[in-house]
Specification:
The structure holds 2 protein chains of 2 kinds.
Chain A lengths: L1 H6 L4 H14 L2 E2 L3 E3 L7 E6 L6 E6 L4 E5 L5 E3 L4 E4 L1 E5 L11 E6 L6 E6 L4 E5 L11 E6 L4 E7 L5 E6 L6 E6 L4 E5 L5 E4 L13 H17 L2 H16 L16 E6 L5 E6 L4 E5 L4 E2 L18 E2 L5 E6 L2 E6 L5 E6 L5 E6 L6 E5 L4 E5 L8 H13 L7
Parallel strand pairs in A: 2-7
Antiparallel strand pairs in A: 1-28, 3-4, 4-5, 5-8, 6-7, 9-10, 10-11, 12-13, 14-15, 15-16, 16-17, 18-19, 19-20, 20-21, 22-23, 23-24, 24-25, 26-27, 27-28
Helix pairs in contact in A: 2-5
Chain B lengths: L1 H20 L3 H18 L3 H11 L13 E2 H7 L3 H13 L3 E5 L7 E5 H15 L5 H14 L7 E3 H10 L6 H10 L2 E3 L6 E4 L5 H19 L5 E3 H6 L9 H10 L4 E5 L2 E5 L4
Antiparallel strand pairs in B: 1-3, 2-3, 4-6, 5-6, 7-9, 8-9
Helix pairs in contact in B: 1-2, 4-12, 6-7, 7-9, 10-12
Classes of the chains: A alpha+beta, B alpha+beta.
Chain lengths: 403, 276
């Protein structure tokens, strides 16, 4: 492969994609790196900061929060060639005004490094400064906090049960997605009142959305059909359209659901056009955000617990999905739902996983108090047959332009 | 059914090789036309074949008169690609070939029934209740067949939506109509929400009890074995005490829902409870 790159037979873009894909599919428990967990109970949430991609934040069920440096190791063991990463610091119940109960969610403040936000079952959201605004709560409302003043800036009401999963859209800075125990997934534009979209599991499309031209044509056909239909029909449809225009958004009484049972996890693809949700009905659904349709991808044999939020991770190129399920981390292809061998290593139920935004590492936290690092093997040697398969699949979904 | 499909597939293959070997434009065109016709119209999708096969294998039970239905998990156990099943099922739903019903036995349990079977059931219920209720109430069954089922593909329906569907054709809905549908077993109240209903199959309660108890019995039977596993051929000969649905029905259901696994051994297929 390197030879072909040298002779120019392989474009740099494809070379990189091929390598990345090969590494992604050969993830295993990393032997060169170890995160020494400082927690005395299960780990509920993990996140790596966005700007440096260097500090790993973890929140645990005993109310403690710790930060690890995942680049500089604290000590190096020569016998096994493992670098150990111990916690830089830890805050727990003993610290004044620390969390009393389990920390359910941790999040780095995206603008200023060194500030992070934690949400907990004691109904507090704490902001910590080491050198906002997202949390899941046991409330039916979502509150957005302004960390400057410490006051709520927004209260979003609409869910009829507690909210377990919240995520900011990766496409628009104003859009927030939330999943509740009532099985609904709602989209909010925080500049406007009310939510503007509710995902409906019955509304579905097969595969990717048709290109714009076809969609327009289809709409046109539908319009024609409408005009050909009886007058009463036309009347009802026109009143409907007018009604939709008058009320921007969706009323709170809208009872469409995205899952049977609570929604426990949300994850958006990096381009913000697809959303993956996990529900208590042990289903994962891939949603097309623009059309609000279920794309009917079935991710087989994933078990989702319903009593706790969980955090899934996506690989940077949005091709693989990592789902904490039982004692292992399940790996699925995002677009087809194909199951790859799962990552086994934890001794207890896994809660969360997060992918290193720049590198090729996956971090997972579990009830067995461990944080495990998954990485491709260090000394990888190229395998011929695998490469061929990789190349074919890449070519199939590659863009048409050249670079 | 499957034999017909096989024959068609063989024919398609022959045609294909024929087109490949003779490069005569006219012949090629004719063959391609036939090829496309067969592809589009005659050969059913894998999902449909599996559905029809399992519908025919549905056990005969004397006590209750429920037309044969297939569980979604059973489809998953037979067809390899689940995404494929979901998508083909959605297409079949929109073509009004099948209807999907949510079952109360689990959060991810769905029953699939052929559309004409369900319609026949509605008609049967109507003729059964003839004379016991006034004609103006009984007309709801006709509305149900003509105006609700073909348009509404969802597994649940709200009162408002029912009303609006009937309003569109100039009919108005009364409480009597709803209570009649509930009495006949075509609607079931949703407990979580007011004024919304699940569409349902009448008289299915007995089978649902069989289903849950049979699942439990089969799982406990396997978990009591030393290695929590058993050969498929041996297992299929066993009889379940609590369920009349038959061993095959339950094995397929549990494999599809991931509570049992299949693995290939030199002695045949082995059924076991997944480890870890």
């Amino acid at each position: 492969m390197v030879g072909r790159r040298e002779t120019g037979g392989l474009s740099p873009h494809r070379f990189r994609a091929l390598l990345q894909r090969k590494w992604l599919h050969s993830m295993e428990l990393a032997s060169h790196k170890e995160v020494v967990s400082a927690h005395k109970s299960g780990i509920n949430s993990l996140q790596i900061d966005v700007t440096d991609a260097r500090y790993l934040l973890s929140g645990a069920a005993d109310g403690s929060v710790a930060v690890y440096d995942i680049e500089l190791s604290t000590c190096y063991e020569h016998s096994t060639q493992t670098s150990k990463h111990e916690a830089l610091f830890m805050v727990d119940k003993g610290v004044p005004r620390g969390h009393q109960y389990s920390v359910s969610c941790v999040h780095w403040y995206p603008i200023d490094t060194g500030i992070f936000v934690t949400g907990s079952f004691d109904n507090f959201v704490n902001v910590w400064d080491t050198n906002t605004a997202q949390f899941s709560s046991e409330d039916t409302k979502i509150r957005l906090c302004d960390i400057g003043s410490g006051a709520f800036t927004h209260t979003l009401t609409g869910h009829r049960d507690s909210v377990w999963a919240v995520q900011w859209s990766t496409k628009s800075e104003w859009v927030l997605v939330s999943g509740g125990c009532d099985g609904a997934i709602r989209f909010w534009d925080i500049r406007r009142a009310g939510c503007y979209q509710v995902l409906d599991q019955q509304c579905s499309q097969t595969g990717r959305r048709p290109p714009v031209l076809k969609a327009v044509l289809k709409n046109h056909e539908r319009m024609e059909n409408n005009t050909m239909a009886s007058s009463s029909l036309r009347k009802s449809s026109s009143t409907k359209q007018r009604g939709q225009k008058r009320h921007f958004g969706v009323s709170a009484s809208d009872s469409r659901t995205a899952h049977y049972g609570s929604v426990t996890g949300l994850q958006m693809t990096s381009d913000g056009s697809y959303l993956i949700s996990a529900g208590k009905d042990s289903r994962l659904r891939l949603w097309d955000v623009e059309s609000g349709c279920n794309t009917l991808v079935n991710y087989p044999s994933v078990y989702v617990r319903g009593h706790k939020g969980m955090r899934m991770a996506l690989s940077p190129d949005s091709s693989l999905l990592f789902i904490p399920s039982d004692n292992s981390i399940q790996v699925r292809d995002v677009w087809s739902g194909h199951a790859y061998p799962s990552l086994r290593g934890h001794y207890d139920l896994t809660n969360c996983c997060t992918f290193h935004p720049q590198g090729q590492e996956l971090y997972s936290g579990s009830n067995d108090r461990k944080i495990l690092v998954w990485a491709p093997p260090c000394h990888s040697d190229t395998e011929e047959p695998e490469r061929e398969v990789c190349e074919q699949t890449i070519r199939a979904d590659e863009d048409a332009w050249s670079d | 059914m499957s034999a017909v499909v096989l024959a068609l597939k063989a024919l398609r293959f022959v045609l294909f090789t024929f087109t490949a070997s003779h490069i005569d434009i006219v012949k090629l065109f004719v063959c391609l036309c036939i090829f496309v016709l067969i592809e589009d119209w005659i050969i059913p999708s894998d999902t449909e074949v599996a559905l029809r096969m399992m519908q025919e294998q549905f056990p005969k039970i004397d006590k209750v008169s429920v037309p044969p239905f297939v569980l979604l998990s059973q489809l998953y156990s037979t067809v390899k690609d689940r995404t494929f099943v979901d998508r083909e099922l959605e297409v079949m739903k929109q073509q009004r070939l099948v209807r999907v019903f949510k079952l109360s036995t689990g959060q991810d349990d769905f029953a699939i029934m052929f559309f004409h079977d369900y319609i026949a059931q509605v008609n049967a219920a109507k003729s059964r209740l003839e004379g016991k209720h006034p004609q103006k109430d009984l007309i709801i069954f006709d509305w149900y067949i003509n105006h609700i089922l073909p348009i509404h593909n969802d597994v649940g329906i709200t009162y408002m939506h029912l009303e609006s569907l009937l309003y569109r054709v100039g009919q108005s809905l009364h409480e009597n109509h709803i209570s009649l549908l509930i009495k006949a077993g075509f609607l079931v109240r949703q407990l979580a929400e007011d004024k919304s209903y699940w569409l349902a199959i009448p008289n299915i309660g007995f089978l649902l009890k069989n289903l849950t108890q049979g699942r439990k019995e089969l799982l406990s039977l396997l978990s009591r074995r030393q290695y929590k596993e058993m050969l498929m051929s041996l297992l299929e000969k066993k009889k379940l005490r609590m369920s009349q649905l038959g061993m095959q029905f339950h094995i397929r259901d549990l494999i599809g829902s991931g509570q049992l696994c299949l693995s290939r051994t030199p002695a045949g297929w082995l059924v076991h409870i997944p480890r870890g």
